[in-house]
Amino acid sequence: MFFSKLxxxxxxPDLWHATLExxxxxxxxxLGGVISENSGVTNIAMEGMMLTGAFxxxxxxxxTHSVILGTLAAIVAGGAMSWVHAFxxxxxxxxxxxxxxxxxxxxxxxxxxxxxxxxxxxxVSALPGNETLPFLGIRVFNTVPxxxxxxxxxxxQNIVFYIAIVVLLATQYLxxxxxxxxxxxxxxxxxxxxxxxxxxxxxxRYWCVVTSGLLSGxxxxxxxxxxAQIFNPNMTAGRGFIALAAVVFGKWKPRGxxxxxxxxxxxQALQNRLQLLPATGIGIIDTPLHSVPLxxxxxxxxxxxxxxxxxxxxxxxxxxxxxxxxxxx
Length: 329
Known about the structure:
The chain has helices spanning 2-10, 13-38, 46-64, 67-91, 96-118, 148-154, 159-177, 179-189, 191-196, 201-227, 239-249, 254-274, 293-296, 298-310. By secondary structure, it is mainly alpha-helical. It has one domain (17-313): ABC transporter involved in vitamin B12 uptake, BtuC, CATH 1.10.3470. Helix 2 (13-38) packs parallel to helix 6, helix 2 crosses helix 11 (239-249) and helix 12 (254-274) runs antiparallel to helix 14 (298-310). It is globular, with a radius of gyration of 21 Å.
Protein backbone atom coordinates (compact mmCIF):
# COMPACT_ATOMS: atom_id res chain seq x y z
CA MET A 1 0.00 0.00 0.00
CA PHE A 2 2.67 2.49 1.03
CA PHE A 3 4.91 1.94 -1.98
CA SER A 4 2.07 2.03 -4.47
CA LYS A 5 0.94 5.31 -2.93
CA LEU A 6 4.51 6.58 -3.09
CA UNK A 7 4.70 5.76 -6.80
CA UNK A 8 1.40 7.53 -7.38
CA UNK A 9 2.79 10.53 -5.53
CA UNK A 10 5.94 10.71 -7.66
CA UNK A 11 3.97 10.81 -10.92
CA UNK A 12 1.24 13.03 -9.52
CA PRO A 13 0.86 16.46 -11.16
CA ASP A 14 0.02 17.86 -7.73
CA LEU A 15 3.55 17.06 -6.54
CA TRP A 16 5.14 18.85 -9.47
CA HIS A 17 2.73 21.75 -9.14
CA ALA A 18 3.90 22.14 -5.53
CA THR A 19 7.53 21.74 -6.63
CA LEU A 20 7.24 24.71 -8.99
CA GLU A 21 5.31 26.68 -6.39
CA UNK A 22 7.94 26.25 -3.68
CA UNK A 23 10.74 26.56 -6.23
CA UNK A 24 9.46 29.99 -7.28
CA UNK A 25 9.23 31.00 -3.62
CA UNK A 26 12.94 30.25 -3.24
CA UNK A 27 13.88 31.62 -6.66
CA UNK A 28 12.92 35.24 -5.95
CA UNK A 29 15.25 35.80 -2.95
CA UNK A 30 17.88 33.54 -4.53
CA LEU A 31 18.04 35.72 -7.65
CA GLY A 32 18.35 38.73 -5.37
CA GLY A 33 21.24 36.95 -3.69
CA VAL A 34 22.86 36.30 -7.08
CA ILE A 35 22.70 40.01 -7.91
CA SER A 36 23.93 41.11 -4.50
CA GLU A 37 26.81 38.66 -4.32
CA ASN A 38 27.91 39.29 -7.87
CA SER A 39 28.36 42.91 -6.79
CA GLY A 40 30.51 41.82 -3.84
CA VAL A 41 28.08 41.97 -0.90
CA THR A 42 27.22 38.78 0.95
CA ASN A 43 23.55 38.72 1.87
CA ILE A 44 22.52 36.13 4.45
CA ALA A 45 19.71 38.41 5.62
CA MET A 46 17.23 37.19 3.00
CA GLU A 47 15.46 35.19 5.70
CA GLY A 48 14.72 38.35 7.68
CA MET A 49 13.78 40.31 4.58
CA MET A 50 11.32 37.61 3.52
CA LEU A 51 9.79 37.45 7.00
CA THR A 52 9.42 41.22 7.17
CA GLY A 53 7.82 41.27 3.74
CA ALA A 54 5.43 38.46 4.68
CA PHE A 55 4.35 40.31 7.83
CA UNK A 56 3.81 43.75 6.32
CA UNK A 57 2.15 42.25 3.26
CA UNK A 58 -0.41 40.44 5.41
CA UNK A 59 -1.00 43.33 7.83
CA UNK A 60 -1.46 45.95 5.11
CA UNK A 61 -3.67 43.65 3.01
CA UNK A 62 -5.93 43.05 6.01
CA UNK A 63 -6.01 46.71 6.99
CA THR A 64 -6.66 48.11 3.50
CA HIS A 65 -8.50 45.09 2.03
CA SER A 66 -6.14 45.41 -0.96
CA VAL A 67 -3.76 42.67 -2.03
CA ILE A 68 -1.98 45.15 -4.30
CA LEU A 69 -1.18 47.51 -1.44
CA GLY A 70 -0.21 44.53 0.70
CA THR A 71 2.21 43.28 -1.95
CA LEU A 72 3.71 46.74 -2.42
CA ALA A 73 4.13 47.06 1.35
CA ALA A 74 5.92 43.71 1.44
CA ILE A 75 8.31 44.78 -1.33
CA VAL A 76 9.04 48.10 0.36
CA ALA A 77 9.56 46.40 3.74
CA GLY A 78 12.05 43.95 2.23
CA GLY A 79 13.80 46.82 0.49
CA ALA A 80 14.01 48.81 3.74
CA MET A 81 15.64 45.91 5.57
CA SER A 82 18.11 45.44 2.73
CA TRP A 83 18.98 49.15 2.80
CA VAL A 84 19.92 48.75 6.47
CA HIS A 85 22.16 45.83 5.55
CA ALA A 86 23.70 47.82 2.68
CA PHE A 87 24.21 50.91 4.86
CA UNK A 88 26.17 49.08 7.55
CA UNK A 89 28.01 46.76 5.17
CA UNK A 90 28.99 49.37 2.58
CA UNK A 91 29.04 52.69 4.41
CA UNK A 92 30.52 51.48 7.70
CA UNK A 93 32.21 48.35 6.28
CA UNK A 94 30.71 46.16 8.97
CA UNK A 95 31.20 42.42 8.80
CA UNK A 96 28.53 41.37 6.31
CA UNK A 97 27.81 38.06 8.01
CA UNK A 98 27.28 39.76 11.36
CA UNK A 99 25.09 42.42 9.76
CA UNK A 100 22.96 39.75 8.08
CA UNK A 101 22.56 37.74 11.27
CA UNK A 102 21.56 40.89 13.14
CA UNK A 103 18.87 41.67 10.58
CA UNK A 104 17.50 38.13 10.74
CA UNK A 105 17.26 38.32 14.53
CA UNK A 106 15.77 41.82 14.41
CA UNK A 107 13.16 40.73 11.84
CA UNK A 108 12.06 37.81 14.01
CA UNK A 109 11.68 40.02 17.07
CA UNK A 110 10.15 42.97 15.23
CA UNK A 111 7.48 40.99 13.39
CA UNK A 112 6.57 39.03 16.53
CA UNK A 113 6.28 42.21 18.59
CA UNK A 114 4.28 44.11 15.96
CA UNK A 115 1.98 41.15 15.35
CA UNK A 116 1.11 40.98 19.04
CA UNK A 117 0.80 44.77 19.39
CA UNK A 118 -1.22 45.51 16.25
CA UNK A 119 -3.63 42.60 16.64
CA UNK A 120 -3.89 42.62 20.45
CA UNK A 121 -2.48 39.13 20.51
CA UNK A 122 -5.11 37.74 18.13
CA UNK A 123 -2.74 37.30 15.19
CA VAL A 124 -3.75 37.31 11.53
CA SER A 125 -6.57 34.93 10.65
CA ALA A 126 -6.99 33.26 7.26
CA LEU A 127 -7.16 35.93 4.58
CA PRO A 128 -10.28 36.23 2.40
CA GLY A 129 -9.94 35.69 -1.32
CA ASN A 130 -9.92 39.38 -2.26
CA GLU A 131 -6.87 39.92 -0.03
CA THR A 132 -4.76 37.12 -1.49
CA LEU A 133 -2.61 36.89 -4.62
CA PRO A 134 -4.60 35.28 -7.46
CA PHE A 135 -3.89 32.02 -9.26
CA LEU A 136 -3.93 31.92 -13.04
CA GLY A 137 -6.40 29.03 -13.31
CA ILE A 138 -6.28 28.49 -17.09
CA ARG A 139 -7.50 25.19 -18.53
CA VAL A 140 -6.18 24.33 -22.00
CA PHE A 141 -5.36 20.62 -22.06
CA ASN A 142 -7.81 19.29 -19.47
CA THR A 143 -9.70 17.31 -22.12
CA VAL A 144 -6.56 15.97 -23.82
CA PRO A 145 -5.28 12.58 -22.55
CA UNK A 146 -1.82 12.59 -20.97
CA UNK A 147 -1.34 16.33 -21.56
CA UNK A 148 -3.90 17.29 -18.93
CA UNK A 149 -1.16 17.48 -16.29
CA UNK A 150 0.21 20.59 -18.02
CA UNK A 151 -2.80 22.53 -16.81
CA UNK A 152 -2.24 21.47 -13.21
CA UNK A 153 1.53 21.87 -13.19
CA UNK A 154 2.06 25.01 -15.27
CA UNK A 155 -1.23 26.84 -15.74
CA UNK A 156 -2.69 26.72 -12.23
CA GLN A 157 0.15 28.59 -10.53
CA ASN A 158 -0.02 31.80 -8.54
CA ILE A 159 0.63 34.96 -10.52
CA VAL A 160 3.92 35.46 -8.64
CA PHE A 161 5.24 32.22 -10.16
CA TYR A 162 5.14 33.80 -13.62
CA ILE A 163 6.70 36.99 -12.25
CA ALA A 164 9.54 34.85 -10.89
CA ILE A 165 10.11 33.36 -14.36
CA VAL A 166 10.28 36.86 -15.85
CA VAL A 167 12.70 37.95 -13.12
CA LEU A 168 14.88 34.91 -13.86
CA LEU A 169 15.08 35.73 -17.57
CA ALA A 170 15.66 39.42 -16.82
CA THR A 171 18.44 38.65 -14.34
CA GLN A 172 20.20 36.34 -16.78
CA TYR A 173 19.98 39.00 -19.48
CA LEU A 174 20.99 41.83 -17.16
CA UNK A 175 24.12 40.14 -15.81
CA UNK A 176 25.46 38.73 -19.07
CA UNK A 177 24.05 40.84 -21.89
CA UNK A 178 24.16 44.44 -20.66
CA UNK A 179 26.74 47.03 -19.66
CA UNK A 180 25.08 47.28 -16.25
CA UNK A 181 25.61 43.57 -15.71
CA UNK A 182 29.25 43.90 -16.74
CA UNK A 183 29.66 46.67 -14.20
CA UNK A 184 28.02 44.61 -11.47
CA UNK A 185 30.31 41.66 -12.12
CA UNK A 186 33.40 43.84 -12.37
CA UNK A 187 32.57 45.42 -9.01
CA UNK A 188 32.25 41.96 -7.51
CA UNK A 189 35.45 40.64 -9.06
CA UNK A 190 37.83 43.59 -8.86
CA UNK A 191 36.33 46.73 -7.30
CA UNK A 192 39.60 48.68 -7.45
CA UNK A 193 39.86 48.20 -11.22
CA UNK A 194 36.19 49.13 -11.59
CA UNK A 195 36.77 52.25 -9.48
CA UNK A 196 39.76 53.19 -11.63
CA UNK A 197 37.56 52.84 -14.73
CA UNK A 198 35.15 55.40 -13.27
CA UNK A 199 32.48 53.03 -11.91
CA UNK A 200 30.92 54.07 -8.62
CA UNK A 201 31.49 50.85 -6.67
CA UNK A 202 29.46 51.80 -3.63
CA UNK A 203 26.46 52.96 -5.65
CA UNK A 204 26.38 49.74 -7.66
CA ARG A 205 26.55 47.69 -4.47
CA TYR A 206 23.78 49.71 -2.81
CA TRP A 207 21.46 49.17 -5.75
CA CYS A 208 22.23 45.45 -5.92
CA VAL A 209 21.65 44.85 -2.21
CA VAL A 210 18.40 46.83 -2.24
CA THR A 211 17.26 44.88 -5.32
CA SER A 212 17.92 41.70 -3.34
CA GLY A 213 15.69 43.02 -0.55
CA LEU A 214 12.90 44.00 -2.93
CA LEU A 215 12.81 40.49 -4.39
CA SER A 216 12.93 38.94 -0.92
CA GLY A 217 10.02 41.15 0.13
CA UNK A 218 8.04 39.98 -2.91
CA UNK A 219 8.80 36.39 -1.91
CA UNK A 220 7.47 37.18 1.55
CA UNK A 221 4.24 38.48 0.01
CA UNK A 222 4.04 35.33 -2.11
CA UNK A 223 4.32 33.23 1.04
CA UNK A 224 1.78 35.04 3.23
CA UNK A 225 -0.64 36.34 0.58
CA UNK A 226 -0.33 33.54 -1.96
CA UNK A 227 0.75 30.15 -0.63
CA ALA A 228 -0.18 30.20 3.08
CA GLN A 229 -2.79 33.01 2.90
CA ILE A 230 -2.08 33.76 6.55
CA PHE A 231 0.78 35.11 8.64
CA ASN A 232 2.39 33.15 11.46
CA PRO A 233 5.47 34.16 13.48
CA ASN A 234 8.69 32.94 11.85
CA MET A 235 6.69 31.41 8.99
CA THR A 236 9.64 31.59 6.58
CA ALA A 237 11.15 28.66 8.54
CA GLY A 238 14.65 28.95 7.09
CA ARG A 239 13.65 29.40 3.45
CA GLY A 240 15.88 32.46 3.17
CA PHE A 241 18.86 30.31 4.13
CA ILE A 242 17.81 27.62 1.65
CA ALA A 243 17.69 30.35 -1.03
CA LEU A 244 21.22 31.32 -0.04
CA ALA A 245 22.27 27.69 -0.40
CA ALA A 246 20.69 27.67 -3.86
CA VAL A 247 22.92 30.62 -4.83
CA VAL A 248 26.00 28.63 -3.81
CA PHE A 249 24.64 25.44 -5.42
CA GLY A 250 24.08 27.40 -8.64
CA LYS A 251 27.60 28.85 -8.50
CA TRP A 252 26.31 32.42 -8.29
CA LYS A 253 24.66 32.19 -11.72
CA PRO A 254 20.92 32.65 -12.40
CA ARG A 255 20.31 29.45 -14.36
CA GLY A 256 22.20 27.22 -11.95
CA UNK A 257 20.41 28.88 -9.04
CA UNK A 258 17.04 28.21 -10.68
CA UNK A 259 17.88 24.51 -11.01
CA UNK A 260 18.87 24.43 -7.33
CA UNK A 261 15.59 26.07 -6.36
CA UNK A 262 13.68 23.38 -8.27
CA UNK A 263 15.56 20.66 -6.40
CA UNK A 264 14.91 22.27 -3.03
CA UNK A 265 11.31 22.97 -4.05
CA UNK A 266 10.89 19.26 -4.77
CA UNK A 267 12.19 18.53 -1.28
CA GLN A 268 9.59 20.86 0.23
CA ALA A 269 6.81 19.35 -1.88
CA LEU A 270 7.83 15.82 -0.91
CA GLN A 271 7.87 16.80 2.75
CA ASN A 272 4.30 18.05 2.56
CA ARG A 273 2.95 15.19 0.47
CA LEU A 274 4.72 12.31 2.27
CA GLN A 275 2.98 13.26 5.50
CA LEU A 276 -0.31 12.33 3.86
CA LEU A 277 0.70 8.79 2.92
CA PRO A 278 -0.66 5.85 4.93
CA ALA A 279 1.51 3.84 7.31
CA THR A 280 2.64 0.27 6.63
CA GLY A 281 4.09 -2.50 8.74
CA ILE A 282 7.62 -1.86 7.52
CA GLY A 283 9.97 -0.32 10.06
CA ILE A 284 9.89 3.44 10.45
CA ILE A 285 6.95 3.85 8.11
CA ASP A 286 4.81 1.75 10.44
CA THR A 287 3.94 5.06 12.12
CA PRO A 288 2.16 8.05 10.56
CA LEU A 289 4.75 9.96 8.55
CA HIS A 290 3.82 13.33 10.03
CA SER A 291 5.31 12.05 13.29
CA VAL A 292 8.62 11.01 11.67
CA PRO A 293 11.14 13.86 12.06
CA LEU A 294 13.08 12.74 8.99
CA UNK A 295 10.18 13.72 6.71
CA UNK A 296 10.15 17.29 8.03
CA UNK A 297 13.90 17.44 7.55
CA UNK A 298 13.84 16.62 3.82
CA UNK A 299 14.33 20.20 2.47
CA UNK A 300 17.11 20.89 4.96
CA UNK A 301 18.84 17.56 4.35
CA UNK A 302 18.81 18.27 0.62
CA UNK A 303 20.36 21.67 1.32
CA UNK A 304 23.15 20.17 3.42
CA UNK A 305 23.85 17.41 0.90
CA UNK A 306 23.97 19.90 -1.95
CA UNK A 307 26.42 22.16 -0.14
CA UNK A 308 28.63 19.31 1.03
CA UNK A 309 28.74 17.94 -2.49
CA UNK A 310 29.28 21.15 -4.44
CA UNK A 311 30.54 24.00 -2.27
CA UNK A 312 34.13 22.85 -2.64
CA UNK A 313 33.92 23.22 -6.43
CA UNK A 314 32.00 26.50 -6.45
CA UNK A 315 34.00 29.72 -6.73
CA UNK A 316 32.37 32.91 -5.49
CA UNK A 317 33.07 36.33 -7.02
CA UNK A 318 36.58 37.33 -5.91
CA UNK A 319 35.50 40.37 -3.89
CA UNK A 320 32.33 38.84 -2.42
CA UNK A 321 32.04 39.82 1.23
CA UNK A 322 35.05 42.16 1.13
CA UNK A 323 34.33 45.84 1.98
CA UNK A 324 35.82 48.42 -0.36
CA UNK A 325 37.01 51.94 0.34
CA UNK A 326 36.81 54.18 -2.75
CA UNK A 327 40.28 55.12 -3.84
CA UNK A 328 41.79 52.46 -1.60
CA UNK A 329 43.30 49.03 -2.11
